[in-house]
Amino acid sequence: CVLCGRTDDCPEKYGEKRTYVEYNLTVHYYCLLMSSGIWQRGEEDEGVDGFLIADIRKEINRAAKLTCNICKKKGASIGCVAPKCKRSYHFPCGLQRECIFQFMEDFRSYCWEHRPVQKFTDEELGASQCTICLDLVEHLPVYTVLRSPCCKNAWFHRECLQYQALSAGIFFFRCTVCNNKDKFQKEMLRMGIHIPERDASWELEENAYQDLLHCYQHCDVKRCLCKKGRDYNEPDSKWEIKRCQYCGSRGTHLACSCMKSWEQNWECMECRSIFAKSGKYSKQKKRSLAASEKTNGTTCLLEEPPPKSPRQSSGSPRSFLLQSSKMMCQNLSPCSPLELPASNRVSMPLSPVMSNRNWSLRYKHLRERRREVCNILKELKVQVKKKPTRLNINAENIWSSALKGFRQRIFSPTNTIEVNFSNCKNRSKTNTSAASKHHFFQSLMLHLQNSSLFEGSSGKNLSLDFQAVKENLYFEAGKMIAVSLVHGGPSPGFFSKTLFDCLVYGPENAKPALEDVADVDVAQTIKTIKYANSLSSLQSTLEDCCEFLAAAGCLRPVTALCDKKMLVNDILIYHVIKRIALPLESFRQGLKTLGVLEKMQMHPDVFSSILCHKPETLSAETVCDLFTIHSSSHVSRGADFWMGYLQDVESGESVVTLEDILLFVTGSCYIPSIGFDPEPTITFSRIRYPIGNRLLNCLELPITKTYQQFKNKMEFTIRNTLRLERE
User: Fold this and answer.
1) Which PROSITE patterns does this entry report, sorted A to Z (predicted)?
2) For residue range 702-717, what is the model confidence (pLDDT) as tens digits?
3) Which domains does the chain have, with CATH numbers?
């Protein structure tokens, strides 16, 4: 290794050892990552993971002048970050001397004297088992022992914990006792445990969980009535096998246990006897059949069954998640006809009997929920510190420069974000005002909406882009959305109901619809299966698309027309949810930034109002309510002029728009989900022309004798100010 001088190839200790023949360069990844005088100035595919070769050469020359305080040899590229500490050392030497290297944020290093330590009380001293290797571990404040921050009785050997982190990766590394993830990872990173940003090793094994896909399919009742045998299973008929609701390892045909529908629960004899002995078992009453389920002596199971409801017992705490998409839209949030959930915006026509009063009420409820979101986001913003982080954004390539900025070492979502726009052609730069930040977040959300990470026309779901998975772009997209919400950017407003349910309730509780399928060919195939009117046409369609069904794991023999319903449902679940399992998990992890996902799961109804609905269209009433008018002797007539002017602008009787007015005062042409800070105000004073103070979000208006004078001054100032800014 050109930095530490060792030939050891031990990825667990020193990271991957990489050799670049064209550059005559061999380096340990951790040695490069922790070096004090080098930064990732290139893209991920440039040099060595973003470290430019020229920078590496400079770092080698810099380190060659420094002597390691441990082995006394030259080439010590790592220095302790503690103030006034001048110790330098090689990465392997630092490990031997029990230095701590933090694989996060600025990638800091601490020598053996200044390293962070965990605080123990005298009562905690003693010994217990390491919860990973189960060997004895002494409760001592030493380098080799670590304690869980969330569990008093969880103690680990540092070496055991490091191997566990390398195996589990960032998605699955958590406390082995209580399963806490966020608090546990934060403490372990502080104490020098490296948690790689990749999936768990066991998730990367091919067919590792093949045995778990096997479902028990056997009728175990004493007298089986099925002529085709105990192993015969025909879905959506009386010969469908129902498994025991408790153990799942015993089964029965519906007809063999006199069950009328799948919704009824069934227990095997073993489980029933256990519950009987414990006194907790009570025989369930049979559900009375509706008139539509009864025919002349023939049960409904002999007919083509109705569409199956989700396989969940009645009274389940999550049964409300599994309603139809139309019902979910009605229960999600009352909304205006222009602000229906994105996934249902086209498929739900406006009812002609719906009165204006009802739409007004729905609109009012939606605004109330958005106000709740505003308060929740303000709680999250408490984490943001005044320390600034500047993003240098290329106006011609927002996405690449944003991605580079979010991935830089010094970037922290808890710092105040400042945006500096530049243009590649003339290198002209703008200031880092609030207007730049608002414009950046608005452009970023628009790019995400139209990017290859999402698919669909209006209500969008995640797409499957293997290159994006490889580059961890789904995580970055989730992180950007979370940061935008907390830092005053716009809400996405393009999530489909299915995507929102997957994020909030988990993919197992989401119910995709045909509208969620963006691929035209796949959607046409599903429609052909769904609307097949005969068994022969259904079988013919399945033969034509057998390769697609096999890839989706849905290829099966079809013996009845009613089989198509479950088949369509399985295809939808595979294509919309299971197919994008890895991007979804990565996207969820990104949304956890600043605690946004946790708040989404706590307040799903209010967050759906900004994630599944387009932002509120500005109106005169909205803008009027946004501003607080400071009282003065001239406020009465001035306020009348102001409200009259807003109405003229809304009706199109002005050369400016409501967005122009908002941009003139605040630097933003939209109302952020978190609201404005400080809140916009209006004052009236004896000035010639209106003044917009974007630092204070204050609009200073002139006092005029007539409304026409007021209107002329407003239009002249706003139009020319914005025109000059654009130029």
Assistant:
1) EPHD
2) 988 899 999 999 999 9
3) 17-110 (3.30.40.10), 122-203 (no CATH), 451-615 (no CATH), 620-725 (3.30.2410.10)
